[in-house]
Design a protein that fits this description.
The chain is mainly α. The chain has one domain (about 1-120). The chain contains 4 helices and no strands. The protein has helices at about 1-30, 40-60, 70-85, 95-120. Helix 1 runs antiparallel to helix 2 (about 40-60) and helix 2 runs antiparallel to helix 3. The longest helix is centred in the first third of the chain and has 27 residues, at about 1-30.
Length: about 120
């Protein structure tokens, strides 16, 4: 049962991240795989980090005895970004995939650890 909760947690965390990312693209009317002004890239990276962190926290809450649920969520996020990076057409900008790999995926694993550490202090 614990393994199942870890898998469900990882998928739920990734779902939170993915859906909010799609919503950002839809609501802003921008293609997140195209060149964008620096201010939009910066806002998007912070937005993505926040929702990746939220996804990691949700993943770790669903599977509280398996800290690797958040790691699994981070792995799904990184895998999605890496596949997108490899499969995207040459003309696409790659800033969103690199941001997901370098900033957003680590946020998914760091946030639950910081939260857990804050509770024990």
């Amino acid at each position: 049962m614990r393994v199942l909760r870890a898998i469900v947690g990882a998928l739920a965390g990734y779902f939170i991240f993915a859906v909010t990312g799609v919503l950002l693209g839809v609501l802003s009317g921008r293609n997140l795989h195209a060149d964008q002004p620096f201010w939009f890239v910066a806002v998007t990276v912070v937005y993505g980090m926040l929702f990746a962190a939220l996804g990691g926290i949700v993943a770790s809450r669903i599977a509280p005895y398996r800290s690797w649920a958040a790691a699994g969520m981070m792995g799904l996020l990184a895998l999605g970004a890496a596949v997108s990076l490899v499969m995207s057409p040459e003309a696409d900008a790659r800033w969103s995939q690199w941001a997901a790999l370098l900033f957003m995926a680590p946020s998914a694993i760091i946030a639950p650890r910081l939260l857990r550490q804050a509770r024990t202090d």
